[in-house]
Design goal:
Low-confidence stretches: none
Number of helices: 10
Strand order of the largest sheet: 1-9-8-7-4-2-3
Distance between the termini: 12 Å
GO biological process, one term: L-serine biosynthetic process
CATH topology of the largest domain: Aspartate Aminotransferase, domain 2
Keywords: Amino-acid biosynthesis, Aminotransferase, Cytoplasm, Pyridoxal phosphate, Pyridoxine biosynthesis, Serine biosynthesis, Transferase
Protein name: phosphoserine transaminase
Pathway: Amino-acid biosynthesis; L-serine biosynthesis; L-serine from 3-phospho-D-glycerate: step 2/3
Organism: freshwater metagenome
Structural class: alpha/beta
C-alpha cells in the first residue's frame, strides 16, 4: 500500500488520543521543568513533598465536592494494586460485581479470594451494561464507572434495598476528573492518575467515606493475613501524614497536582464534564452520520464521554486506519487489545482539546477516502 500523507492543515495540533497514559498539557510539563524539577531526588517524608501531597488531597476533596467525613487516601501501585488492597483489607463476606468489560472482570476475580465469600457477577456483554441488584447478605458492591476497554459508562448510585452495612466501591480510573458524580452515592471512589488527571502511573488514590474507613479498621483488627503493601489501614495512616508507605513517584504527584489545580480553576468537575461530553459527542455524531462506522455502544445512555469506541464496516480495516494515522503522528487510537473488534478507541479526556477531536474526524474521513 502506498504511503498516505495527511495534509498538515487538517492534522491535530496534538495527535495523542490514547486511553492511558494520556496526553499531558504543555503547561504541566513547563511547570515540572521549573518548580517540579527542584523536588526530584528529595525525600517524600520531608515537608516539601508532604505539602504537595496535602495539596493533592485538598484539591481532590474540593473537586469531588466531598461530603463531611470523606478522606483522600493514596498508596503505591495503580488500580490493579488497589483491587488486591480492597480484597485483603476492605471486602467482607459476599460481594457483587458489575462486569461489562476487562477491568470489571479483573476486580471481580480479585474478590474471589479464598478468605472471602461468594462473588455474584452481574455480567453484560461488551458494549452493553447490566445493573447491580440489591441482595441480602451482600456486603460489598463493586463496579467500573467507566469501562475503559469498551467505552461503557455506569452511573454512581447506591442501591435502594442493600444491607445497611454494605459498602459501594467505584472503579473510577478513566472517569475521575472527567465525569461528574455525587460523592455521597459511593463509599470508595478509587482511581489511578494517568487518564483525565494527565499524570503517570504507579499510584492509586481513593475518596473514602467514614463507613469505608471504619470497615478497613475493622478488617485490620481481625486475624486475616494482610501484607503490609496491601493494607488499606497502613495506607490510611500514612495518608493522614501526607505520605505513602513506600517512596512514590514525585513526578506523578507533581503532574497530578497541576492538573487538579487547572480543573478546579477552570470551573471544577462540572466544567470538566461538559468539556469531555462536547468532545465525545462530536465523535458519536460523526459515527452516526457516516455509512462506514457506528458507535460500538448502541445505547446512547450507556456511552462513555471519555472513552469513545467506534466500529467500522467489514470492508474497511480499522487497523490500517490506525497505522496510517500513526505514521502521520496521530497515535494510540487502537482498540483494546483483548476485545478483538474492527474498531478504534479514542480518549476524550479533560486535557484533550475539542479542536483536536474535530481535526481527528477530518483525518479519519481523509484516510477512509484514500483507503476506499
Amino acid at each position: 500500500m502506498p504511503e498516505i500523507l495527511i495534509p498538515s492543515q487538517i492534522l491535530p495540533k496534538d495527535g495523542r488520543f490514547g486511553c492511558g497514559p494520556s496526553r499531558l498539557r504543555p503547561e504541566q510539563l513547563a511547570a515540572f521543568g521549573s518548580a517540579g524539577a527542584h523536588l526530584m531526588g528529595t525525600s517524600h517524608r520531608q515537608q516539601p513533598i508532604k505539602e504537595m501531597v496535602a495539596e493533592v488531597q485538598n484539591g481532590l476533596l474540593e473537586l469531588f465536592r466531598a461530603p463531611t467525613g470523606y478522606e483522600i487516601v493514596l498508596g503505591n501501585g495503580g488500580s490493579t494494586a488497589f483491587w488486591d488492597v480492597a480484597a485483603y483489607s476492605l471486602a467482607e463476606g459476599n460481594s457483587q460485581a458489575l462486569v461489562h468489560g476487562e477491568f470489571g472482570a479483573k476486580f471481580a476475580k480479585a474478590l474471589s479470594a479464598p478468605f472471602l465469600g461468594s462473588v455474584d457477577i452481574q455480567k453484560g456483554e461488551p458494549g452493553s451494561r447490566t445493573e447491580l441488584v440489591a441482595r441480602a447478605g451482600v456486603n460489598t458492591y463493586v463496579y467500573p464507572q467507566n469501562e475503559t476497554s469498551t467505552g461503557v459508562v455506569t452511573p454512581v448510585e447506591k442501591l435502594v434495598g442493600a444491607d445497611k452495612d454494605a459498602i459501594f466501591m467505584t472503579d473510577a480510573t478513566s472517569a475521575a476528573g472527567g465525569i461528574d458524580f455525587d460523592a455521597s452515592q459511593t463509599d470508595v471512589y478509587y482511581f489511578a492518575p494517568q487518564k483525565n488527571f494527565a499524570s503517570d502511573g504507579g499510584l492509586w488514590l481513593a475518596l473514602m467515606s467514614e463507613k469505608a474507613i471504619d470497615r478497613a479498621s475493622k478488617v485490620s483488627s481481625t486475624d486475616r493475613y494482610i501484607p503490609e503493601f496491601l493494607s488499606l489501614q497502613v495506607a490510611i495512616d500514612n495518608s493522614r501524614l501526607n505520605q505513602t508507605l513506600n517512596t512514590p513517584a514525585i513526578a506523578t504527584l507533581f503532574l497530578l497536582n497541576e492538573q487538579i489545580k487547572w480543573i478546579n480553576a477552570s470551573g471544577g468537575l462540572a466544567w470538566a464534564d461538559a468539556k469531555t461530553k462536547a468532545s465525545s459527542d462530536l465523535l458519536y455524531d460523526w459515527a452516526d452520520s457516516v455509512s462506514f462506522a457506528t458507535p460500538f455502544v448502541t445505547n446512547p445512555d450507556h456511552r462513555s464521554q471519555v472513552v469513545v469506541t467506534i466500529d467500522f464496516d467489514e470492508a474497511i480495516d480499522a487497523s490500517q486506519i490506525a497505522k496510517v494515522l500513526r505514521s502521520n503522528g496521530v497515535v494510540d487510537i487502537d482498540p483494546y487489545r483483548k476485545l478483538g473488534r474492527n474498531q478504534l478507541r479514542v480518549a476524550t479526556f479533560t486535557a484533550n482539546d475539542q479542536s483536536d477531536i474535530e481535526a481527528l474526524i477530518a483525518c479519519l474521513d481523509y484516510v477512509v477516502g484514500k483507503l476506499g
